[in-house]
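Retro notes, structure queue

What went well: the backlog is down to a handful. What didn't: a couple of records were mislabeled last round, so from now on we paste the full input next to the output in the thread. Example, using Signal transduction histidine kinase from Methanohalobium evestigatum:
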Amino acid sequence: MNEGVCFHEIIYDKKGSPVDYLITDCNPAYESIIGLKRHEVIGQKASEVYGAGEPPYLSTYAKVAETGEQTYFETYFPPFDKYFKISAISPEKGKFVTIFNDITEYKNLKDDLQRTINEFNYLFDSMEDALFVGDLEGNILDVNETAVKRLGYSKQELLSMNIKDIDELYDEDGINDNILNLPENGKQKFESVHITNNGTRIPVEINSNLIKYKEKTAVLSVVRNITDRKNAEKLIQRKIQEQKALLSSTPAYVYLKDSKLNYLTANDAFCKVVGFSIENIKGKNDFDFLPEKEAEKYRSDDTSVMESRKPIYNLEEKYTTSEGEIRWALTSKVPYFDTEGNVIGIVGSSLDITERKRMYEKLERAEYEKRALLNSTSEIVVYHDLEGKILWCNKAATKFTGLNCRDMIGQYCYKLLYNKSEICDNCPIYEIVKTGKHYEETVTFTNKILNVKKDPVRNTSGDIIGIITVTNDITDRVKTEEKIEKYAEELEKINIELEHRVRKQTEDIINAERTRELELHHRIKNNLQVISSLLSLQSEKFTDDEVKDAFIDTQNRVKSMSLVHNKLYQTKGLENVNSKDYIEDLVDHLVGLYGGSNITIKIDVQDIYFGIDTIIPLGMIITELLSNSLKYAFFDDEQGEVYIGLYRNEEGNYKLIVADNGKGFSEDIDIEEPNTLGLQLVNSLVDQINGDFEAETINGTKFVIEFNN
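Corresponding output:
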């Protein structure tokens, strides 16, 4: 017997309600179907045997035991993960017998078959790909829902059409040949373009196979819309071009290596530095263009990345260019994975940091030199942050505090210097941060006097980033200054007394000297006047007019010298004579001597002071030239004008001009080599004052003498 048979008895509670049932007997088929031994279940409650928490199907079995009505049903029993077909009968009231079969395999086969049918139908209509079934002539025999929706035709319309009605390339590129060759090749894969009901063109990929359809040979075509793929291919191509442009424009060296560490590709910057073109870099390795040690180092790094499957970032390393120049690069390398997560190479990028490296080296050297310089000075130098915390200090600071630099860094000055727990009132650091201005003060301790200077430190943007404090121990200097101040006061008193004495003695000496010089000028003037008088008396004894005129000229020359000494005596001066006053007196004398009421004298002389060595020759020159104009320039009673000018020009030289508008020089007078005493004397006197002498005879006579005092 193949059916399992099991005998049961209902268990009731005190109210007469069924609560469980007892297994009283079973056949061997029960053991094989259920998997429990007979002796394990006889006399046991169903709830305990089947482990379901409550007895299975209690209400159904209780009804059979009460009414005696037979029942049967199919069910799935979770505790045993099996399907059963069960028939229940009651031999007597309160008892029932179950006869059952294991239909799990049948149930599964039936379910699988139905599921397969359902899944096929579902897949056929729900596939994203369109499905076409057609005969070998291209007539459409069946389509799925996707084909209907995609092409915009009803299913009935499509079943009345031929494939060439919707395939734009059917008669081109051998697509129809592909279909005709299916019996020989068995399957074909190709691309084409389908046209929808509204004329839209859709790129498609077609996979065609021969099948049996309703006992006839037919063609099953799986048609995939590859619009997205085509667009993606265009996008990928554009992205590739963009990436190539991007990689070509970046200064970094970017490259891709395969699992054997041969180059697959690289950007322009990398190829340029190693001396290969992009086309020729493929298949090369580091040993083809780098020194052996460098190549071994790079290979070791690459191998480490591939084996560890972990990237390395920002590795500073040397590299040699194709021209043999050694430079520095900042390199990162990451593993290159395939779609299954296998490492199939590495991607690397290197940025040339040679200039930055050199700059850092310069900064390090400058930092070293700065530290050496600051540590060599006796000044206490401390660098604070904006809160006053010490960030750096020199050796002089450690010597002053008795702490090493490491212990001072991170401390605050109010703690180190004043042993305070809080910041000092009116702390200058905050004022400097606020105003950005220099601060300086003198701080006095018990036995020290310090000059403290604080200045803001700015970055390249002008923002204050710290405070530098420079402190000098000025104790000795202050004490020395106090001594010097005391000595200075004493010296001041002594100097005042000495100055008083020296001033009095000097004044006495100057007065005596001045008196002597004035007396000398007075005597010279008197002697010159005596000489002039003698010449005047002597000239009266001669009847020859030429001799007489010669004496008068000499008398005038003596008079001009006498006037100088008279001026010096009158002004009480010892050195200089006012040229304007002197010339005016000299002109008055000569005009009075020679007459000439018909001649106008125009004097244009600046207030210039000359020493005796200049004023005497200058006066004699004027005497000679003016006397000549008064005597010879004009006819009797002829109206005329004589101009005398003296001024300082822009070059700093002095210019004397004596001019008249008379009849000019006689033709027998040579200005360059004169034969008259007067002009010879003028030339000599001009040389004496280191001057130049010019004469013009246009519209009268004009003498120009330029000299430097």
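Agreed that this is the format going forward. Reviewer comment attached to the example: The chain is about 45% helix and 30% strand.
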